[in-house]
Structure formats: C-alpha cells, structure tokens
Amino acid sequence: MAGGAAAKGGIEPGDVILEFNGRGVKKVDDLVKTVTATKPGTSVPVKLVRNQQERTLNVTVDELDLEAEQTSTQNRRNNNGNDAPAEQNGAGFGLTLQDLTPAIARRLQVPAGQGGAVVTDVEPDSGSAMGVRPGDIILSINRRPVSSAADAARELQKVRSGGLAQLLLWRDQGQVFVPVKKD
Questions:
Q1: Strands 144-145 and 137-141
Q2: How many domains does the chain contain in total?
C-alpha cells in the first residue's frame, strides 16, 4: 500500500518475501502471523527476491490500519466464499492470475474503476511470458479489455499455440505494452 510500512521500507509489488525478522516465510499466513506479533515501531530485516536477486531491507513495523484490513478481508471472502481470490491459469503462457480487488488496486495505485487481472506468478522456465512479472495487472489482451482473471484466461485461451498475445499492463503506476508468445 502506498505510504505503508512496507513501501516506506523499500518493498515493491512483485517482491517475494523469504524471511521476516530471521523467520522463514513459506506462505502469506506465516508472514501475517509474524508481522502482527511484532511490536509497532520495531525495525526488522526482511529478506526478499526482486528481479531474481536476493536483498535484505530494514522495515519499521507500523500500526495496522484495521479499516483497510477489514475491507481487504471482506473482499477476499466475497470472492466465491474463499479466503483468497480465485486464481486462474494463463492458458499456455506460464502465468497465474487472480482478480484485481479494490485493496490490490489501491496498493498498486490503479486508477479508480479500472478492472483487470493481477499476475501472481510467472513460471520461471516459460519463455512465453518474458517481460511479464508478478504484480503486473493485465488491462487488455489483443485490445479487448479484461475485467477479471477469468476474462484474461478466456482471452489467452483464444490465442493459438505459437501465436502472439498483445498485453496492455499496469506496472509502476503506468501502462506498459508487452507482446507474449504462447507455448
């Protein structure tokens, strides 16, 4: 979230957190439990991977914004009754996608009312998704607007094997055009 403790500490969308204050992080719940058990105002080392390089940043834990957290949790639960947004496979492109929630849109500073699909994972061995990275938001595919992960998966499915998909992405507070080839 812009202006939040993670952003102030240098953590960016797409970073993969490996350790928080010396404790390994295997899933989001591990991180949440460790962060919430840390006293606000405490500076802790956070080991992460960014652009295939490990880094350690010092982050000062801040007070939890309960209103923002409750909104985020409610949005996740409203999505098919699950605690996490439903993920979709990128249909031969080596991508894993989820719906763009209001909380994610705020954190990534996406313009209000913009729909899309968030890239949550890119298969490392997939050459087809070169140029796409976790944290990117797919706004359109082949000039067709995308409003959800399911929309994106359907549009990607339409591309023939070996064909190109033209992705319009939201990244770093701006739009980026990336052509990708289907395996």
A1: antiparallel
A2: 2
